[in-house]
Write a structure and sequence with these properties.
The protein is of the alpha+beta class and 320 residues long. It has a single domain, classed as Beta-lactamase. It is built from eight helices and eight strands; from the N terminus they run H-E-H-E-E-E-H-H-H-E-H-H-E-E-E-H. The strands form two sheets. A six-stranded antiparallel beta sheet has the order 1-3-2-8-7-6, sandwiched between helices. Strand 7 and strand 8 form a beta hairpin. The longest helix has 23 residues. It starts with a helix and ends in a 41-residue tail after the last helix.
Length: 320
């Protein structure tokens, strides 16, 4: 046997052994095989990005379900994405989109919200009122809502059929873009401060999720969704903006295939604690994990439990 052939075989054997001995990335137990470990990046602070990636993987390492994560911190130029293009039934987080579309329409008409709009926008956000959401959904119409999504630049959000606003399909990446409408200094939304204010006043029993682990120096502006359906179990979502005197960052966690609502909440809060800890070293947490006896297993009722003909049959989107 020639020396060249021997060296080639030796190199191949070494590569195989190295691959077998390499650590396997941690992913959520039982998660879709298309789900990949969180990837955080920061040109300003690559060490922070590496730590955050490890911490998010650790938070998911023993969890069931299918999870998507997106994080954006303007101060450190940190971004994180885990399966951020996978689509989920939006449930009640779509109410942020409805609110922003109503605010944008008022801007375009060079006016503030009417008394009727205010009477619906306020409870839709602060109490997750479904009747108010339906009123605004019908009033805005699909054309106006679609035009708004185009203006934001969402890529994979699809409005729910007919009056089924809770079946709007969305991604963590698109939810990050929608939150950016409220935080970016150059935003086209003139009344973004009002939108953030409403999100800061969500009632206490709906303030679980991404605020878990946040430090006392920050304010949380959040909206959640919690919906069980006959396929993919519980959808449990939490999106939020965190503002303080020296920073602003956004966190989005979407999930389905959760066995219970409480299980999904706990998964989200484990991720949130890792994010807040990484972005705020040395600052004590003001909000811990939500006790299970404070998590209701009642649906947010934003969509029917069973399939909607022509929408859920067959399963239309398994794209990661």
């Amino acid at each position: 046997m020639g020396i060249r052939m021997l060296n080639r075989r030796t190199a191949m054997a070494t590569a195989v052994v190295s691959a077998l001995l390499a650590p396997v990335p941690a992913v959520a137990a039982g998660a879709s095989t298309a789900q990949v470990p969180a990837a955080c990046r920061s040109t300003q602070n690559p060490d922070l990005a590496a730590r955050m990636s490890r911490d998010i993987r650790a938070a998911l390492s023993s969890r069931q379900g299918t999870v998507a994560v997106a994080v954006r911190d303007d101060n450190s130029d940190l971004t994180c994405a885990l399966a951020s293009e996978r689509r989920y039934d939006a449930a009640s987080v779509v109410k942020v989109t409805i609110m922003e579309a109503a605010l944008r329409r008022a801007d375009e008409l060079q006016r503030t919200l009417t008394d009727w709009e205010l009477a619906n926008v306020r409870p839709m956000i602060t109490a997750s009122d479904n009747t108010a959401a339906q009123h605004l959904w019908n009033d805005l119409g699909r054309t106006c809502l679609g035009r708004f999504l185009d203006r934001v630049g969402t890529r994979r959000t699809e409005l729910g059929p007919a009056g089924y606003w809770g079946l709007t399909r969305t991604t963590a990446a698109d939810q990050m873009r929608l939150l950016g409408v409220l935080t970016d200094a150059g935003s086209f939304l003139k009344s973004r401060t009002f939108g953030l204010k409403l999100l800061s006043k969500v009632r206490s029993d709906q303030r679980w999720g991404v605020p878990a682990g946040m430090p006392r120096s920050l304010k949380a502006h959040i909206k959640n969704g919690w919906l069980p359906r006959s396929t993919h179990g519980w959808r449990v979502h939490s999106v939020g903006v965190f503002t303080g005197s020296d920073r602003t960052y956004r966190v989005v966690v979407l999930s389905h295939d959760n066995p219970t609502m409480a299980y999904g909440v706990r998964t989200i809060e484990r991720i949130a604690q890792a994010v807040h800890r990484g972005l705020n070293p040395g600052r004590g947490a003001v909000q811990g994990a939500t006790p299970e006896n404070r998590i209701s297993e009642a649906s947010d009722a934003s969509a029917p439990y069973g399939p909607v003909p022509g929408w859920d049959e067959p399963e239309r989107d398994a794209t990661p």
